[in-house]
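User: Some background: our group keeps a shared notebook of sequences we're curious about, and every so often someone picks one and asks for a predicted structure to add to the entry. Today it's my turn. The entry only has the sequence so far, pasted here. Could you supply the structure so I can complete it?
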Amino acid sequence: QVRLVESGGGSVQAGGSLRLSCAASGYTSSLYCMAWFRQTPGKAREGVARIDPGRGSTYYADSVKGRFTISQDNAKDTLYLQMISLKPEDTAMYYCAAIYVGFCTGGSLGLAGVGYWGRGTQVTVSS
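Assistant: Of course. Here's the predicted structure to add to the notebook entry:
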């Protein structure tokens, strides 16, 4: 079974940094792109960043571009999200996801094609 387990969340002050990790197991990495999503109560889950297999192309939501960096260590089967200059509006539950590669088109950060979700890790940014 595919399992995704996030870690690294926590509480920080505005302007601070966090690095989230997602440990993956039981999956064939070439069949998926990997992504981070986030969700706040009362709002729809939104895509934050995506990284594709092969060339490792990355895509970001406009709201986080320049502040967040997605990366992947295939040898360790681990996905990362480095977050700097955090803002209160970044407060959310962050989820990693494995997306079937056929849905990893263009700069899409949508929910279509998500095959597996982690349970999430909470990020809270205080003002």
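Suggested note for the entry: The mean pLDDT is 95. The two ends are 40 Å apart (CA to CA).
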